[in-house]
Amino acid sequence: MNRRIWSVDFISSNQIFAGTDSGAFSSSDGGRTWISENNGLTDLYVNSIILSPNGYKYAATSSGVFRSNQPLTDVKSKNHGVLEKFTLYQNFPNPFNPTTAIGYDVPVRAHVTLVVYDILGRRVETLVDAERQPGHYEVTFDASALPSGVYLCMIQVESFSETKKLLYLK
Known about the structure:
By secondary structure, the chain is mainly beta. It contains no helices and 14 strands. The protein has strands spanning 5-10, 16-20, 23-27, 35-36, 46-51, 57-61, 64-67, 87-88, 99-106, 110-118, 123-132, 135-142, 149-157, 160-168. It has a 4-stranded antiparallel beta sheet, with no helix packed on it. It is globular and about 40 Å long. The model is unreliable at 73-80 (pLDDT under 50).
């Protein structure tokens, strides 16, 4: 795919969704071939894309958030019962105003730290600083008291860390 990709959601190692500057696309062969998923989209500049647990695709654009008309029935849920690795998911929606959901997976009992930083690296808010049992978690980040801008969300668990970019637009 020769497009600027803004968001990727992996359902499995083969099933991938991508939000690009020219629409939403899916691949069922690990990214070798891509299919347009733009049916119903009025704005093809897709900032963020995600597949919900009930199979609906959500695409965030500058015109709003769009949901697919039909859920996918041939894609297995992301939650296969046993989580294989620590994962920080891209927040949704992104861009957001003023709240956004941030999901993460914990495959083994561990101490989790989830912190939001401003673009200069200053800590804005600690969302999680606690021991977690294995499972999928989701927290809400409320930026209503902050200025518009780019923020970074970083998860740290044992020797694992990952960072995602959050875009807050008032």
